[in-house]
Amino acid sequence: MRHLEGTPRSQTLLLPPSVEDYVPEDHPVRVIDAFVDSLNLSEMGFRKAQTAHTGRRPYHPGDLLKLYIYAYLNQTSSTRRLEKECHRNLEVLWLMKQLAPDFKTIADFRKDNGDAVKKVCRQFIVFCKQAGLVSGQLVAIDGSKFKAAASKDQAVTRKQLEKQLGKLDQKIDRYLAQLAASEQGGDSGLNSDKVSEALAYLEAHKAELQDELKTLVDEDKTQHCRTEPDARLMKSGREGMVVGYNAQNAVDEEHQLIVHHELTQAGNDNQQLKPIAQEARDVLEGELETIVADAGYSNGQQISDLQSSEYDVAVPSNRAVNNQGAGGHFQKSDFTYLPEEDAYRCPAGKLLPHKTVSNKDRMHLYARSGCNQCPLQSQCTKADRRWVSRHFDEEALDRADDSATPERMIRRMATVEPTFATLKRLLNKGRFTCWGLGSASSEYSLGVLSYNLMRAINVLGVKGILARLA
After folding, report:
1. CA dihedral in degrees (379, 334, 318, 294; nearest 10)?
2. Helical H runs in 131-226?
3. What CATH number is given for 135-149+230-317+400-444 in this structure?
4. What are the pLDDT digits (tens) for 162-182?
5. Is the Cα dihedral 76, 80, 83, 84 positive or negative?
6. Which of 62, 67, 315, 369 is the most exposed place for a label (fewest CB within 10 A)?
7. Is the pTM of this model over 0.85?
8. Where along the chain do its domains lie?
9. Which residues are registered as beta bridge partners of 388?
């Protein structure tokens, strides 16, 4: 019988005599090693980069950073599994120089160095910019929900607590009524001791819920996650409501590199455009021309501020229809704004002067009376007065809306949305393994760093990056 046969286990040399021979010259693990070695980890704020003269010698943060980058490139986030890989994986043996830290040491590094890892992400983008991989001509911004480590069942809202308290009151009243009926009618079939025990439990549970509700009211919060207070209950497209965080990415169109990222607790993207764009500009050293985002980022004040800084902002309008009547009614676009008179002219030729201001909604309101005598009333309003609103930053919103052409929106989608798909594949199918915003941010930054490294290798190749790092 002619079968392939393995090497005898008693053979003296099973592996190459040198650890250097464990990985090929064009293996991505060599890029990880060279890039981390090029960093000044002390300046970036890594803990234990500077050691004390006494005590046990710690692992170098550079070695642990290399291990984590390799781990996320290979979709491994479990620290216990990483501990095993340090003993059996030839690539990890080469990368770690045969060091084998325990899982607790590995986990503590990720938890304690979130801000420093984010600086490493920024430094890699600087390297990519010098290598010509980032242009800044068009940067797309978008957000996506990532699940927290906590269970969704641990999240409660004010309404849920109030509903639970109402049900508890009903149960308590029912038990009290049973006790009262038993005492009056001499019902010997009722076990008073067990009923009293159940009442005591319900009263204790009610007190806990009341304390939890009071805390939410005192802190002016609408929700709370019992096991992970940093996480928030938020809408997530097809998945409905999830307990997690809102991840923000600013992606350069040239090679889909993430130039800036942020993990936030915000349930929507309405307040994220300006801070993310400014951080992206700083990373690109001011070389940012066009910012593209979807309608969820439509914020007049932030768009106006960015346009005043000479950015081309392309964001579709996300404003409500001015007239909610039946189809065929005149919309706001049918009214002409007269800036000299600060008034609107309606389709019937009448003026709607400025009436009042809504600071909460950042709106100017215009109206006129006597619409019930207008021959076009049936196409305009059922009331005697038609109102038209104008945003404080109406002109900025219009310019951003005009810039958001269908072609740019397609480019936005093709630039930023694939990054989230890849990151969710790298990061445990979009669910963090770390608890709390700080640790989850560190985990997300490691995922972003691994993603950018993979993109750069795909473009330049291992040898091309090593030549630039040399």
Report:
1. 130
2. 158-185, 192-218
3. 3.30.420
4. 888 888 888 888 877 777 776
5. negative
6. 369
7. no
8. 19-126+462-469, 135-149+230-317+400-444, 153-225, 332-391
9. 366
